[in-house]
């Protein structure tokens, strides 16, 4: 029997196209605390980070009470949109994402997981909305770990699945995902359809793919075909 492989996915910008929801919530959070809303590019540049790190990344000049106020305003805004049905449940999976997940999950040597800047509650909404139950064996979220690119999420995924980093790959759309993967000893695959500029992603990833149907081959090349 082939040795198992751990395949870990980021969520926002990798599996789901949630940028409109994130940009809207961030703008409303800034407006709520009396600050000018960040540009779309500024907001997308921090997707994947934990909320405090995201706010500091967008506005390095603000003090910690303002960081805390922005975090609370963002969470409150997201909860309101979620309750109204215009949160994560309203955003689409990227083309090919479902087929890719189902295909990879069907292979007995593959173990799938998530490592996301979302809290577990938000991840559960995505899984429910897109009927992704039974696909992932390990769920690592921002409310349980330090912010990306700290390797804590991936280290926990290895412990939970019993699969070492030498048989593991991180798939994501940002340099934070790639840096986290490298810090944990994972191979890394960047996806070109996400939120970080392609040049930034290519500088950090082992390989970058343009379509989900290229992922199987990229994983085989990095971890060995089975």
Written overview of the protein:
The structure is a single chain. By secondary structure, this protein is of the alpha/beta class. It folds into two domains: 145 residues, 3-Layer(aba) Sandwich (Rossmann fold); 71 residues, DNA polymerase, domain 1, CATH 1.10.150. The chain is 46% helix and 14% strand. The chain is built from ten helices and six strands, in the order βαααααβαβαβαβαβα. A six-stranded parallel beta sheet has the order 3-2-1-4-5-6, sandwiched between helices. Helix 8 links the parallel strand 4 and strand 5. Helix 1 packs across helix 4. The longest helix has 20 residues.
Largest sheet strand order: 3-2-1-4-5-6
Number of strands: 6
Q: CATH superfamily membership of the largest domain, which one?
A: HAD superfamily/HAD-like
User: What's the CATH class of the largest domain, please?
Assistant: Alpha Beta
Q: Runs with pLDDT <50, length 5+? A: none
**Biggest sheet features:** 6 strands, parallel
- Report helical residue fraction: 40-55%
Mean pLDDT, all residues: 94
Overall morphology: globular
**What's the order of the H and E elements?**
EHHHHHEHEHEHEHEH
Number of helices: 10
C-alpha end-to-end distance: 9 Å
The percent range for strand residues is 5-15%
List the helices and strands and how they pair.
Layout lengths: L4 E5 L9 H14 L7 H5 L6 H8 L5 H20 L13 H10 L3 E7 L3 H10 L6 E6 L10 H10 L6 E5 L2 H10 L2 E5 L6 H7 L2 E3 L5 H9 L3
Protein traits:
alpha/beta; DNA polymerase, domain 1; 226 residues; Rossmann fold
